[in-house]
Amino acid sequence: MEDGIEGEKLPEQSTETAQPIVEEVMPGEMPEASHAHAPHAHGSGLPWLDVIVTISVVVISVISLVVSIEHGKTMEKMVDQNQKMVEANTLPLLTMETSLTNDLLHPEKAQVKIELKNSGIGPAMIDRFELSYKGKSYTSDSSMQGVIGLLKDCCAAALPKQGSVIPSSAASVTGSVLPARETILVFGIAPQTPELLAALKDANEDLKAKACYCSVLDECWETSFGHKRPTPVKECKVAPGEKLW
Questions:
Q1: Distances from the Cα of 37 to the Cαs of 31, 32, 34, 47, 174, in angstroms?
Q2: How many angstroms separate the CA atoms of 115 and 89, rounded?
Q3: How do residues 191-236 score in pLDDT, each as one tens digit?
Q4: Got the DSSP string for 65-102?
Q5: Domain boundaries in the chain?
Q6: CA 131 – CA 116 distance, rounded (Å)
Q7: Which end of the chain has less neighbouring CB within 10 Å, N or C?
Q8: Percent of the chain at pLDDT exceeding 90
Q9: How far apart are CA 122 and CA 87, in angstroms?
Q10: Pairing state of beta strands 124-133 and 177-178?
């Protein structure tokens, strides 16, 4: 037995490493998909709770949208109010005053003045000022020709003899800037005689003035210095050759 066993040779084992078996992919077949799962949202497992959560999200979104819209409207109102406050703080208002200083004991000291006052709280840029008597306009210059022409038209019969000097003064109004609460003299006259003083009083009813002025924000108004409020206009226009004081 032992001889027989010894005489037989055992098959030699292969020392090569076993190769993995690769599955062949048959033509036309798709490779097997991976079993990895993509993450996805999971519900609570309670349908009624999921519905409540969804509705709550929608309601909150709608409320946020409404709040944003109302906030935008509030901001617009605040901007508009701030703009109005700025406009109010720069608002000029021109008024015209006629004054008579009469001294019964000394008639030669009597004075007649026409003054333009800015009763507003912002400076007035006067682009046009017109002074007229019975529809005729006059201009102001350093030679006082405008005042002399006005006196001749209104009070010729009461004027002193030729060559007499009537103390008077005037200022150019058109193109000037009148600060708030300040006054500018349009013209002033010292009649010196009771006759001229009376004539000037009578002429005051037919003496008219018009003005167009703007604020520092380029907001403009026209006024005839009556009881009506100044009328807002886009701009102050001056016609070529227009006689302005």
A1: 17, 14, 9, 24, 87
A2: 24
A3: 878 888 889 889 988 999 999 999 999 999 999 998 888 999 999 9
A4: HHHHHHHHHHHHHHHHHHHHHHHHTT---EEEEEEEE-
A5: 94-233
A6: 12
A7: N
A8: 31
A9: 9
A10: antiparallel
The token pair at 54 is: 């969804």
Q: Are 121 and 178 in contact (CB under 8 A)?
A: no
Residues 111/190, Cβ–Cβ less than 8 Å: yes
Is residue 129 within 8 A of residue 174, CB to CB? The reply is yes
Which residue's structure tokens are 């708030």? 180
173: left (phi over 0), alpha (psi -120 to 50) or beta: alpha
pLDDT, tens digit, 9 for 90 and up, residues 122-162: 999 999 999 999 999 999 876 678 888 998 999 988 887 76
User: Is this prediction's pTM over 0.90?
Assistant: no
Contact 183, 105 (CB under 8 A): no
Other Cβ atoms closer than 10 A to 113: 17
List the structure tokens of 100: 């008579």
